[in-house]
Amino acid sequence: MESLFPVVVFLAIATLGAALARRLGLLAPIVLVVFGLALSFVPGFPQIELDPELVLVGILPPLLYVAALETSVPAFKNNIRPILLLAVGLVLFTAFVVGLVLHLLLPQLPFAICLALGAVVAPPDAVAATAVARRVGLPRRVVTILEGESLVNDATALVLLRVATMATVGSAVGADKIAIEVLRSTGGGILIGALGALVFGFLHRRITDPLLDNALSLIIPFAVVFTAEHLHASGVVAVVVTGLVLGHKLPQLLSAASRLQIGAFWRLVRFLLEGLVFLLVGLQLREVLRDLDEPIGSLILITFAVLGTVFLTRFVWLFPATYLARLVPRVRRRDARPSPKFPIIIGWAGMRGVVTLAAALALPLTLADDEPYPRALLIWLAFAVIVFTLVGQGATLPLVARRLKLPPDDPVQDALSAAAVQQQASRAAQDRLDELAASAPDAVVDRLRRAVEDRTNMAWERLGGDERETPSQAYGRLRQEMIDAERDVFRAARDSGRIPEEVLVQAYRDLDLEESLLREVEK
After folding, report:
1. In contact, 310 and 94? CB cutoff 8 Å
2. Are 71 and 147 in contact (CB under 8 A)?
3. Which of 434, 501, 425 is nearest to 459 (CA)?
4. Which of 185, 201, 301, 355 is deepest in the core (most CB within 10 A)?
5. Residues 192 and 275 in one domain
6. Rounded CA gap, 287 and 47, in Å?
7. Do 437 and 455 have their domain in common?
8. What is its main location (predicted)?
9. Are 10 and 22 members of one domain?
């Protein structure tokens, strides 16, 4: 009872914070981090010491998995060059520059532990990128690059952190050991992820019960990450690979009922976990400050030096990576030179999150030969980077996006493409109906033909640029009123005892499904 109470309190606060953020037009992650920072100093408020294993194995896998499920594999492949330049190149560059700056400021610290901190603060967070980028309404390609970067960069950072930690505690680290570590971690993660996609794809294809499909989808990320970690491979890479492959094949693997249920289930899971993650990050402030014993002047200098380095290295890397690549003719032909607005907004969106804090808490307690070092200072620096990037950059990202006036995705082109494909799909449906028409009454066939025509007309109606109500919108408005009237009749019949509760539930279910479809059409 007592152990469950704080969890319920945190969930309630996370829900309240998300609701308040929507009411005020703010980004929920920022509001929840600020809530956490304030609540961390409230006397008697429950405090939870964040366990790195809980974050990296318990919270991160499902969030990475659902993000990978929703990532377009063709878009990911089309943007693989900028994604890898950020997820691998930028992470390594940031880690080494931050490590060098910290080593210059604290020369008594071995470079290996300084590099470990660089690896901790280098990767932008998958949860923050997904939660903020889509909410801000950035162009589709920018969102794809940011999400692709955040899916892969944790693996780069964690491998580098593992190598730096080995050197920190006195293990011999040579080129051969680094190569073996990278191969085992990344290569092993890819193999396990591909095997997981094969096994769980097979199971999804054989399951017909939506509830069992839903249960399996919850098990998948944990099963994959536990297997990878047991074999000392990268659980992050394994989960991402499994999610990308299954997400791409999901239309062939699941029934319509399973897809609808799984989609709703994962929206709830992501909402709750993201809220808890950002709230817990803020709540760690009191614990982080408790063990600090650095002089205030030195603390401020080191903190601002690390913050400035983290912020600037992203831009220093982005502009050459964006424009020097266009000197290669093949790259220039495939990808036109973008406006400077794009590297600016991608640079501004480098928000850190819970993975950075978890990695910082996983730093070794002592150096080689049990030599102490200012571990609390390094944890504070990681925490400061999270708060600065998430609250500072995240809060100003919508303003920066508006000021840059990024060219939005063309809704007319999207609607035109959708209408053209819908017409092709309708033609295929008509052809199939013609083949089977003899097996059904003429009235049924005519009704099906009208339904196909309505879907085609609805797709083309979206191309109309005026504000007048389209026939489909008029249909939706009137049908909604009719559905409300039907519900009133069924409810009154249940209340008067003319029908049992089960009949009401089934009728409401059918009407709810139709109303959900109407609302989707209106979007």
Report:
1. yes
2. yes
3. 425
4. 355
5. yes
6. 9
7. yes
8. membrane
9. yes
pTM of the model: 0.84
Task: List own/partner pairs for 47-51 with CB under 8 A and 24 or more apart.
Answer: 47/283, 47/286, 47/287, 48/6, 48/10, 48/280, 48/283, 49/284, 49/287, 50/280, 50/281, 50/284, 50/354, 50/357, 50/358, 50/361, 51/361
Number of domains in the chain: 3
Same domain, 302 and 240: yes
In the listed set 409, 424, 441, which residue is the last one of a domain according to the structure? 409
CA angle 10/383/292 to nearest 5° reads: 105
Asked if 164 contacts 112 with a C-beta cutoff of 8 angstroms, the reply is yes
CA distance 254 to 276: 30
Residue showing tokens 């607005």:
341
The pLDDT mean for the chain works out to 85
Encoded tokens for 286: 């009191």
Residue that the structure tokens 């593992």 belong to? 162
Which DSSP state fits 173?
A: -
Choose among 89, 164, 97, 30: nearest CA to 308: 97
The separation between the first and the last C-alpha atoms of the chain, rounded to the nearest angstrom, is: 43
Taking the CA atoms of the chain, what radius of gyration do you get in angstroms? 26
As a whole number of angstroms, the distance between CA 423 and CA 431 comes to 12
CA angle 489, 491, 496 (to 5 degrees): 95
Residue 214 is predicted with a pLDDT of 92
Which residue type does 46 have? P
Three-state SS across 40-64?
CCCCCCCCCCCCHHHHHHHHHHHHH
Return the sign of the alpha-carbon dihedral for residues 263, 268, 269, 275. positive
Nearest to 201 by CA among 238, 247, 233, 237: 247
Mean pLDDT throughout 274-278? 85
**Other C-beta atoms within 10 Å of 161: how many?**
24
Residue 459 shares a structural domain with residue 500:
no
Q: Which two tokens stand for residue 15?
A: 């829900």
For residues 16 and 82, membership in a common domain is answered with: yes
| Per-residue pLDDT at 17 exceeds 70 | yes
Q: Write out pLDDT tens, residues 187-209.
A: 899 999 999 999 999 999 999 89
Residue 63: half-sphere exposure toward Cβ, Cα within 13 Å: 29
For 371, residues 6+ apart whose C-beta sits below 8 A from its C-beta are none
In tens, the pLDDT along 164-191 reads 888 787 665 566 677 777 788 888 999 9
Which of 438, 465, 492 is a domain's end point? 465
Q: Are 184 and 158 in contact (CB under 8 A)?
A: no
488/434 same-domain check: no
User: 455 lies in which domain range?
Assistant: 410-465
